[in-house]
Amino acid sequence: MIGRFTDAVTRGVGDVAASVTDVFDPTIRLGVTGLSRAGKTVFITSLVANLIDRGRMPGFSAGARIETAFLQPQPDDTVPRFDYEAHLADLTARQPHWPDGTRAVSELRLSLKVRPAGMLAGLRGARTVHLDIVDYPGEWLLDLGLMEKEFDDWSARALRRLKDWGATGYAAALAAVDPAAKLDEPTAQALARAYTADLRDLRAAGAYDLTPGRFLLPGELEGSPALTFAPMPPGEGPRGSLRREMARRFEAYKRQVVQPFFRDHFARLDRQIVLLDVLGAIRRGPRAVEEMRAAMADLLTAFKPGALGWLMALLGARRVDRVLFAATKADHLHHEQHARLTAILEAMVRDARARADFAGAQTRAMAIAALRATVEETREHGGGSLGVVRGRLLDTGREAALYPGALPDDPAHLLGPAREGAEAWLDADYDVMEFAPAPLTLRPGEGPPHIRLDRAADFLLADRL
Questions:
Q1: What pLDDT was estimated at residue 250?
Q2: What mean pLDDT do residues 384-411 have?
Q3: 361 burial type by CB count under 10 A (0-12 exposed, 13-18 middle, 19+ buried)
Q4: Domains in the chain, please, with CATH?
Q5: What whole-number distance in Å separates Cα of residue 181 and Cα of residue 177?
Q6: Distances from the Cα of 316 to the Cα of 13, 22, 74, 307, angstroms
Q7: How many CB atoms lie within 10 A of CB 193?
Q8: What is the pTM of this model?
Q9: Rounded mean pLDDT, 382-404
């Protein structure tokens, strides 16, 4: 308790100092998260490139008042810098390729010199607004729910999920050991590896709520004792036993890994975008769609969404007051289906949005593509026309046209079977190919091509500029 109080006081002093600085140089801290392969790295890279060169940002209402945008050193010296230049080089090379995904927290500061608006605009000069973008894995965000769980509760749920998804590797490893026996470090490491392998298999099959998230994306903690534990069956174990040590390491993980992440990064955000590969979940089937929906419903319990009064804001308190849920890879569909994809996303995150709206935060859902990798075509098929997308396939490199199937007009036609536990879609077959980035030829003043990135930026940033 004393440690938590000291942390709160120390953090409060720092936040007040930061708020005084914000009076002269306002700062927006934007969190970017999403589960693996949702497109976080590409989103940040394209957003920054299109804020620097705004020729493709007609839907960004503040764009006309930005005189210049430039990168500056980030304020947090102990956080790795988001490698914007290398990622942009990957996407704009003669043979472009997708950059490596997010594996740890990183940060980037983009400073915008903005002309004021309104009746007094002519009396004031341009001001500088800093945009601090914080990139972090969505898997780590799911860990925040562990703070309210005891080891036995987490173990029971984790073991049940492995069984429900048909994973057997960890069960076999666990059956070969005695949890009440004295701790043997190689045994603990073998159990942690077996449990991690099952988590990876579950993720490939479409599961989303997989904890601890650091087992999938360990970052700088890979191989450390903090990640060398696994769920245990109910029972007692003497001091020094395998079971007691697993429980101790679980508590240490919450205290030394999860809590500092929340305190140092997550709790300091102003705006948040959650990227979701909805099309990938649909392709995996009803169970994956329901997993994603349930994960999003729990996600906002980790946020502190809502509006702040002016006094609390002045004192340094921070609260996420805008949350954008974005279905990525909209370029994998013809634009005729974008409204259906948005409607499906809105239905999937309805519970999460309701919680945020009740707390006073503004939320929105939209379908986007941070980097457009395809072009649209209309093909004749069966006596009618069919809207398809054409691009370069990721696995073979050859050009191909894709029609992934028609998304339903009513999202309930997908979410209903998903909630009911259907094994497969009864009346449709959805196929989404993986496309490689297309070679780009950018004219001066233009950022990379996208779909609705300007509208996303407008919702997240324009009111603060």
A1: 96
A2: 91
A3: buried
A4: 2-136+268-373+441-464 (3.40.50), 153-261 (no CATH)
A5: 8
A6: 8, 9, 19, 14
A7: 16
A8: 0.89
A9: 90
